[in-house]
Design a protein that fits this description.
The protein is mainly beta. The protein folds into two domains: 131 residues, Pnp Oxidase, Chain A (Roll); 69 residues, no CATH class. The chain has one helix and 17 strands. Strands 1, 2, 3, 4, 5, 14, 15, 16 and 17 form a nine-stranded antiparallel β-sheet that branches. Strands 7-12-9 form a three-stranded antiparallel β-sheet, with no helix packed on it. Strands 8-11-10 form a three-stranded antiparallel β-sheet, with no helix packed on it. It is elongated.
Length: 244
């Protein structure tokens, strides 16, 4: 038996969605978690019965103290930016993009050459505008631009655009939908010091994003979450840590 009490953890963090406090479905792995901190806190209240008598005025006749568990804070950081993680960090809801291909005709109202205009599809190609040379047409994402000075277009007039599209698989996250996310948390790991298996479990956590995402960072982008753990029915504390 290895009695070494040190702790150096490797583990996989998993999160399950709560709706009205009930776990819906299973847990999904969040990916590479670079930090995970738990901060329990307690308060101690002291009551004293103070003497007002002449002989011992101001002295404590009796003293009682009461300690209470106040709250448990949690914080973790990860650098896997898949759909579920972005959905939670952006406090949003996500929809999958269905793969689709086709052709479309779209009218840009009052086009001005040199400006970009949004098209109703992604994956746009083979754009044709009557009277406009192909080299004067730029597509960037779902945006269309006709070059300044291009022939075939008069600024301020409506322009008909013909194009093909191939959306492919993907997703969209609409951010700022919720004020917070309620989740259950499991950390399944191994103590590298004594090779024991560990499980950290919190049945209810209120998560909120913390910090910023620098989309132009030279380093890998990370997401940070802060939150509070709550005591579920049937538990004596906010979380459980098991090692075996």
């Amino acid at each position: 038996m290895n009695n070494n009490g040190g702790l150096n953890l490797a583990g996989d963090l998993m999160i399950g969605e709560l709706v009205n406090g009930i776990l819906t479905g299973g847990y999904f792995p969040v990916g590479n978690t670079t930090s995970f901190t738990v901060s329990p806190s307690a308060t101690t209240e002291t009551k004293k019965r103070i003497s007002k008598q002449k002989a011992d005025y101001g002295n404590a006749l009796d003293t009682i103290s009461r300690s209470e568990q106040e709250e448990t804070k949690i914080s973790f950081e990860l650098n896997d930016l898949h759909k579920e993680n972005l959905n939670k960090w952006l406090l949003g809801s996500s929809t999958d993009l269905a793969a689709s291909t086709g052709s479309n005709v779209f009218t840009v109202a009052a086009m001005q050459r040199g400006q970009f205009y949004e098209l109703p599809h992604l994956g746009v190609s083979n754009v044709v505008i009557a009277g406009v040379n192909a080299e004067d047409i730029t597509i960037d994402g779902d945006m269309l631009r006709v070059a300044v000075g291009a022939a075939g277009v008069v600024d301020g007039e409506d322009v008909t655009v013909n194009y093909d599209y191939d959306v492919g698989d993907g997703f969209t996250v609409e951010g700022g939908v919720f004020a917070k996310k309620d989740v259950a948390i499991k950390l399944i790991g191994k103590n590298r010091v004594n090779n024991k298996n560990i499980i950290f479990a919190a049945a209810k956590a209120e998560l909120m994003p913390s910090g910023d995402i620098d989309l132009f960072s030279d380093d890998f982008v990370s997401l940070k979450f802060d939150g509070l753990l709550y005591k579920p029915v049937g538990w004596n504390g906010h979380f459980k840590y098991t090692q075996r």
